[in-house]
C-alpha cells in the first residue's frame, strides 16, 4: 500500500544520485491496493532511552485487524506490541507531518524500548498480521 496516493498500477523505481557511477534505476515492487505502510517519525534516529515512534497507515480493509509490531536487533526481539487500527484513527490527529490521503486509516505508535545495554545500534521494526497463518511481514523499517 502506498501512502503517497499513487495508483495501484503505478510503476515505481529508485534512482540513485550518489555515487554517480550507479546509472541504472532499480525497480521497486508493485504498489498493493491493500495492506499496511510504516514510516519512522522524527528522523528515525533515537537514543537508547527514547521511545521509537512510527506512523502506521492501513487500507480500509485492514480496520480491526490485530497487528503485531516488533522491534528487533539481530533477529532478537527487543519489544513487541499489538495494535488494532480502528475506523476513525488518525482523523484530526498528527501524522508526524506526513501527508495521508483520504480513505487511509493511520495511527502513530510509540514503542518504548526497555533500557538495556544491548538495545542500541541498528534496530528493525516489523509489522505482522497477527491473525494470519503466514508470518510474512506487512511492513518493515
What does this structure look like?
The chain has strands at residues 13-14, 26-27, 36-40, 52-58, 66-73, 76-84, 105-111, 124-129, 137-140. It is mostly beta strands. The protein has one domain (34-140): Immunoglobulin-like (Sandwich), CATH 2.60.40. The strands form three sheets. A four-stranded antiparallel β-sheet has the order 6-5-8-9, with no helix packed on it. A three-stranded antiparallel β-sheet has the order 3-4-7, with no helix packed on it. A two-stranded antiparallel ribbon has the order 1-2. A hairpin with a 2-residue loop joins strand 5 and strand 6.
Query: Strand order within the widest sheet?
Result: 6-5-8-9
Given the helix and strand composition, which structural class is it? Answer: mainly beta
Give the strand tally: 9
- Output mean pLDDT: 74
Number of helices: 0
Write the layout of secondary structure elements.
Elements: E1 13-14, E2 26-27, E3 36-40, E4 52-58, E5 66-73, E6 76-84, E7 105-111, E8 124-129, E9 137-140
Antiparallel strand pairs: 1-2, 3-4, 4-7, 5-6, 5-8, 8-9
Amino acid at each position: 500500500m502506498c501512502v503517497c496516493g499513487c495508483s495501484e498500477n503505478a510503476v515505481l523505481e529508485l534512482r540513485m544520485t550518489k555515487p554517480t557511477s550507479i546509472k541504472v534505476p532499480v525497480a521497486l515492487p508493485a504498489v498493493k491496493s491493500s495492506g499496511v505502510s510504516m514510516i519512522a517519525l522524527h528522523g528515525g534516529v533515537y537514543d537508547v532511552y527514547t521511545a521509537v515512534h512510527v506512523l502506521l497507515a492501513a487500507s480500509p480493509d485492514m480496520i480491526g485487524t490485530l497487528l503485531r509490531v516488533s522491534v528487533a536487533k539481530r533477529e532478537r526481539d527487543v519489544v513487541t506490541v499489538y495494535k488494532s487500527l480502528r475506523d476513525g484513527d488518525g482523523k484530526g490527529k498528527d501524522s508526524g507531518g506526513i501527508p495521508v490521503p483520504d480513505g487511509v486509516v493511520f495511527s502513530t505508535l510509540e514503542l518504548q524500548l526497555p533500557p538495556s545495554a544491548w538495545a542500541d545500534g541498528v534496530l528493525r521494526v516489523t509489522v505482522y498480521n497477527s491473525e494470519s497463518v503466514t508470518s510474512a511481514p506487512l511492513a518493515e523499517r
